[in-house]
Amino acid sequence: MNGHSGADAIALLKADHRTVEKLFDAFEKAGDDDLEAKGTLARRTCEELTVHAIIEEELLYPVAHKQLEKQNEIDVDEAYVEHFLVKTLIEKFDTLKPGDHGFDATFKVMSELVKHHVEEEESALFPELRESGVDLVALGEKLRARKAELMKKLDQAGSKLVGDRSLSFARAL
Ligand SMILES: [Fe+2]
Ligand SMILES: [Fe+2]
Fold this sequence. Notes:
Blueprint: H1 9-29, H2 35-67, H3 73-92, H4 103-131, H5 136-160
Helix pairs in contact: 1-2, 1-4, 1-5, 2-3, 2-5, 3-4
Bound molecules: fe (ii) ion (2 copies).
Residues 56, 79, 83, 117, 121 line the site of one fe (ii) ion.
InterPro entries: Hemerythrin-like
Domain Hemerythrin-like: 9-129
Protein name: Hemerythrin domain-containing protein
């Protein structure tokens, strides 16, 4: 590992991916009747995914679109479409509560979609970006700063939503 490899944009985004995968696993292991755990895990997953999607769309995908070879631009276009689908599923949790019919199914489909998307990013988009010569350390700094800002907003919104089990936090961002 060289001095900067822990800090660049790709390392940061991959760490986010691993965090979300752990949440998917924990949800799968939660007892069928443990609505408390399922609700908390779904909320945390949606928060992580929302912040991650925002920083990628604001800072990474535009750079990728500009820098990648013409034949690889399709990977960025597909990534935007997959994000759109994930966000549509996240919105369903505005009204779905743990124990509701469809709650587990929605979470499951969301996790499958995200796993597919992560696989595409890590096997195609990220390596292409690394080859393009973009300054990934500088980009990593920007991603980290924006993520910290969004997490702070989320904390502030969360403290106002205590007792509210919906996932309407996304509107606070
Ligand atoms: Fe993504
Ligand atoms: Fe990602």
